[in-house]
Structure formats: structure tokens, C-alpha cells
Design goal:
By secondary structure, the protein is mainly alpha-helical. The protein is built from two helices and no strands. The protein has a domain of about 40 residues.
Length: about 60
């Protein structure tokens, strides 16, 4: 196991290798996630509604 100073040196070296996304990439990815979440919510709402109609029809 490396001593704490070596460890911190290695951490600093590894952090320097990170490539962070650009602002544009972050915004586009966020928008895509929001759109997919909305589409998923709409889909499951419709499925729930159809199943509810089916259950109501069975008990009437």
C-alpha cells in the first residue's frame, strides 16, 4: 500500500486525465433525459389507463 503522499500524487495524476463534458453536451444530455422521462411517463399513464378500463369492464 502506498503512503498518503504517494496516494495523493497518484490521485492528482488520475484527475488530470479526466475529460469533462462541454456545456453544450451537458445541456443536450439533460434535455434528452427530460424528453425520455416525459415519454416514459406518458406511456405508463396510458398503460395504466387502459388496464383500469379493462378492470372496470370486468366488474360491471
Amino acid at each position: 500500500m502506498a503512503n498518503p503522499i504517494q496516494f495523493l500524487s497518484q490521485v492528482r495524476s488520475e484527475v488530470g486525465k479526466i475529460t469533462w463534458p462541454t456545456r453544450r453536451e451537458t445541456v443536450l444530455t439533460t434535455i434528452m433525459v427530460m424528453v425520455m422521462a416525459l415519454l416514459t411517463a406518458i406511456f405508463f399513464s396510458l398503460v395504466d389507463w387502459v388496464i383500469g378500463l379493462g378492470i372496470k369492464a370486468m366488474f360491471m
